[in-house]
Amino acid sequence: MKSFFSKFKEGLKKSTPTFYKAFGKVGGLFSGKTIDADTLDELEEALYMADFGVETTEEILGAIREAYRENKELRGQEAAQIGTHVLESVLEGSEGRIEPGAHKPEVIALIGVNGSGKTTTTAKLAHLFKEDGLKPLVGACDTFRAAANEQVRTWCERLDVELVASQHGADSAAVAYDAYAAAKSRGADVLILDTAGRLHNKANLMKELQKIRRVLQKHDEAAPHHSWLVIDGSIGSNSIEQARVFHEAFGLTGIIVTKLDGTSRGGALVGIYRELKLPIYFVGLGEQPEDFQPFSIHHYTHALFGVED
Ligand SMILES: Nc1nc2c(ncn2[C@@H]2O[C@H](COP(=O)(O)OP(=O)(O)OP(=O)(O)O)[C@@H](O)[C@H]2O)c(=O)[nH]1
């Protein structure tokens, strides 16, 4: 099996400027030759504004303050390096990586509230797997929202990806079951399931998700092999609570954070990781299929502090 990430190494560099935007002003604070007390105050404010949360903000500031106490001539880039190291150690272990090939098909269930970006992420994943020479198949399990099917269909046509869908109002677990069978018989490497984000109430939604799991397990006891929460990065610290609720109800195996291109609150993913220790697999950086990258601690931390590679 070809390495899954070969294509992405180039992509990572390309979108660094997008990340810079996402972090607003933090990086800019260290562009000067030396820092001063004002820089530290501004850093504190910027980290809170970006939703890094109390713990992470205090750890970063504490380390830079200590270095500044010892050396009043501390250079901007030195301070930025210190911040980078603190954040790198907070995020240690957070990079989710998959190597398709362990199961055929490898089943990925995308979960999350409406509008978080599940359907777009389904398309992005399908595109990514295709680019890497794998065969994806998509199951449109959001049978609740009428337009959802259409949206997935449009994406799959555009990307030339096979789709299993059903009528609006159909049993989503039945779609999942059929999609698995189709993926197996058509030799798909990866099955991506786009699930509903809203039902009449939360309990029903969780029941439906659990039913999808039970039904998949009739095919393969280990399925879904990945249950990823797709979370809107621009909602900031509210995302932590959202992740906790889904994790308790469904047992997530990872996170995908979307919309990091259009937000200055890109710090919340650190809070999610601190709290739930769920790996972050991908980040969404735009509306197009290629605006999608594996989460990289190095990239994230360096972009935040404006540290050059
Ligand atoms: N800027 C930006 N927009 C995104 C990203 N991901 C998704 N979107 C946009 O967010 C909106 C909602 O995305 P969907 O993929 O429809 O979200 P969903 O979770 O499937 O929502 P439902 O289908 O309503 O359940 C769309 O307008 C997407 O184009 C991203 O990474 N960046």
UniProtKB/TrEMBL annotation:
Keywords: Cell membrane, Cytoplasm, GTP-binding, Hydrolase, Membrane, Nucleotide-binding, Receptor
Domain SRP54-type proteins GTP-binding: 279-292
One GO CC annotation: plasma membrane
Broad class of where this protein is predominantly found: membrane
UniProt cross-references to Pfam families, sorted A to Z: SRP54 (PF00448), SRP54_N (PF02881)
Membrane topology: Peripheral membrane protein
GO molecular function, one term: signal recognition particle binding
EC number: 3.6.5.4
Subcellular location: Cell membrane; Cytoplasm
Assembly: Part of the signal recognition particle protein translocation system, which is composed of SRP and FtsY.
Protein name: Signal recognition particle receptor FtsY
